[in-house]
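Batch queue: ligand-bound targets. Current item pairs a single chain with zinc ion. No template structures supplied; prediction is de novo from sequence plus SMILES. Inputs echoed for audit trail.
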Amino acid sequence: MRDTRTCPKCGSKDVVEVPGGHDGGANWLPAGWGTVPIDRYICCACGFCEEWIRADKLTKVQKFWRDR
Ligand SMILES: [Zn+2]
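Prediction returned. Tokens below.
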């Protein structure tokens, strides 16, 4: 969905990106003492929502969540 801009559920191309964190959507994942932003891709035809964490934040997520 992030790359295709097409909804995998209904096939619509009416997909919007809502950046996580301070950039817009205020969507966060807790990771230790801090948080990482979660970007969302939302289909405006059916409401399906896909969430992505940016590649440069994955090490932080892995460190905090892997060994819990
Ligand atoms: Zn859809």
